Amino acid sequence: MAKLGLLETDTLYPELLPDYGSYGRMFARFFSELDRDLRYRYYQVQEGELPHRPDECDAFLITGSKAGVYDNLPWIAPLQSWIRNSHKRGAKIIGICFGHQIVAHSLGGHAAKSGSGWGLGVHRTRWVGPSRPSQTLTAAGAEANSEFKSESNAEDTAEIRLLYSHQDQVQRLPKGASLLASSDFCPHAAFKIDHRVLCFQGHPEFTPDYSRRLLQRRISAIGEERCRQALATLDQPTDEAEIGRMLLAFIKNGG
């Protein structure tokens, strides 16, 4: 039974805690709908908790955060050191949103606040990897999820749709990284480094209800018109299950 280490790099807004628990708990619920055999270990990064050994878990996932990689916070530098050291020691690392940015930034790329503004709601990216995520699953990964029926837009092999919520972006990929997904708004929306790193700017763990409540809370900070546009996209179908299956294959097989 595979174990996923969830490195939580933020806490939810207080009014969202009763329904969603934490960023790590949201990922656990998301993956549990696809694979009931995955186990979890939680690390509170903001409190200085990081894995000691790369073999504590089969893979590690760094969550989203309201922080930026450039923020002068006491837990940022230790997390970056952990990423570099764990990567050298062969750990499998997943980065989502802030996690995507700090993995790239730590391994020689660059992330910063984007001049394009907020990326919100359902966002479409061109899949530029060698094949669509559902086609990259290993036989073992596909078999482990054989009960799941995908609702992804399977006939469109060039587009991936996920929920987004970010101001910062990866502006330069690390050396050796392969681009997986891109758009005019978010050129580096997903990337991988061999069988050890897999990162996405979008949030496969978000639900439309969570995104709706998050957007409504941030109207004053983001602006009513931009939030209204994002809210209007939340009824669109998304491909989070397909990405989830790709992530599961990576966790279990390094695919």
Write the topology of this structure.
Elements: E1 3-8, H1 17-20, H2 23-32, E2 39-44, E3 59-62, H3 76-88, E4 93-96, H4 98-106, E5 110-113, E6 119-127, H5 139-144, E7 159-166, E8 168-172, E9 178-182, E10 190-193, E11 197-200, H6 208-217, H7 219-222, H8 224-231, H9 240-253
Parallel strand pairs: 1-2, 1-3, 3-4, 4-11
Antiparallel strand pairs: 5-8, 6-7, 6-9, 9-10, 10-11
Strand elements, count: 11
Q: Which architecture name does CATH use?
A: 3-Layer(aba) Sandwich
What is the helix/strand order? EHHEEHEHEEHEEEEEHHHH
The spatial strand order of the largest sheet comes to: 2-1-3-4-11-10-9-6-7
What would the principal axes of the Cα set say about the shape?
globular
The helix content is 25-40%
**What's the CATH H-level superfamily name?**
Class I glutamine amidotransferase (GATase) domain
Mean pLDDT: 90
* CATH top level assignment: Alpha Beta
Hey, roughly how much beta strand do the residues contain? 15-25%
Alpha-beta content class: alpha/beta
Largest sheet: 9 strands, mixed
What do we call the CATH topology?
A: Rossmann fold
